[in-house]
Amino acid sequence: MELLKKYGPEIPLEFLERIAKAFGDLRTLADEGTISYPYSTREAVNIVKHLQKYPRDTLSEAIDNIFDFDVYNNELRKTVRRTLKKHKLEPTEGILLRKRYTDEGELKVEMIPISELPTLERSGTLNPLRYSDKKFTESDFGGPKHGKVDPNGAPHVGGNTWAGGSGGRDTAGLGGVGGPYRLDSGNPVFQVSDAVKQALSPEARKMARAMAQKAFDEKLLEIKMSKYEGNVYEEYLAPIRPQIAALRVILNSLQAKAKERKWIKHQTSGDMDDTKIIEGVVGEKNIYRRRQDENPEPGDPQQKPKRLMLVVDVSGSMYRFNGYDRRLDRMLECALLVMEAFEGFEEMFQYDIVGHSGDDYKLPIVEHGKLPRDNKERLDIMRIMHLHSQFCSSGDNTLEATDEAIKTLATQVEDFDESFVIMLSDSNLERYGIPPKELSKILNSHEDVKSFAIFIGSLGDQAERLKLQLPPGKAYVCLDTTKLPQILQRIFSETILA
Known about the structure:
- The chain has helices at about 1-5, 15-30, 40-55, 60-65, 75-85, 115-125, 195-200, 200-220, 225-235, 240-250, 275-280, 315-320, 320-325, 325-340, 375-390, 400-410, 435-445, 460-470, 485-495, and strands at about 100-105, 105-110, 165, 175, 260-265, 270, 290-295, 305-315, 350-355, 365, 420-425, 450-455, 475.
- By secondary structure, it is α/β, with parallel strands linked by helices.
- Residues about 90-115, about 120-130 and about 255-260 have low confidence and may be disordered.
């Protein structure tokens, strides 16, 4: 804070505190591996210096100058925006520190300088919403419709023609009235007043609701998912949405790691370099070249996809003790995290999910190259995992499943940039007389396959004791649903981004 005060002596203290706390949180996210760029005091100082030098600029404009270079990284932008919004800071579109007024029926925007903000905030006159001045009567409404799709995605305000518009009527969009359902086009939203909404007749409301229900049912049919199934899927998805977004940021920041064979020139032995024939004639000795494995430079394109095999525990103990510590629920959430987060990254990162129980050690849950295409297929995979745990035989094949996964990827290392095996299990090895040293041996069995164990269930301190007997950095304990995705993020950030 003292440093920020030094660079911005005329900036209100409350804004300096917001900036300091926001960048503290961003730094924590970087340390955890959630974001790859280590935002620090330097960026906070730059914002303060900008405001000090240009006092007529808004806070959001100053923030934009810092974060504009991240505008094309969608997942990173969402994560940074959430963090800034928590402290009432946002690049464009949030507490934008603007007021709106109408001039001859047209919406206009007047920027509010930073020096006026404390007074406006205390008076309550600063409203972060954008309002439309459109006024509609009951006779204006023509019935709900989707609207035309603008191929250019341009903003449309106050009309009744375009889908995704705002502050208008009849069409699907945001901030308007009489439309059948919400539709976000990514443009700024203008909100009609409550008085305008009251002008909509009960009959028109009923028509809009019926059309919304019909569209919803059609969407469910597209993925062959019932309303009940949609609710079940949402129950698993909602708690891990932030972790999905964070993991996608990490996947989007992957660096190539595989060594490449390159020609090394200026050698005293090897193959003759045709470009150095003249130097050889005059007696030069460094006229040869040799092939050599070289680490890729930072930023080099990834030539091959990375590979992950997720080994999940669907044994009877997962179902049996789910009521005790929710271990099966956490397993399903982790599988969903991978399926949701990795979607769209198939060319960069390929994965499959293999299960193990007392019945088998290589149950194909998600096969390599046959990934789930929609929510219905992902929910079906989760159901299969749940049902297998309920009806399988007693027993444990943790070692066999992990060993098989590592051996399988070890035969394919030449095809991938990096290979990972992550084994998810409860810590019930002791019950079956399985010594930890056997699992340690398997986790370290192949240097080209990075292998980890995550224990998501424990009777007493069983999991912690097991972790201490495994190689450092190879095992994690996760007894909190929200921590499981973060552990996956830590594994990727410390191994892929290192």
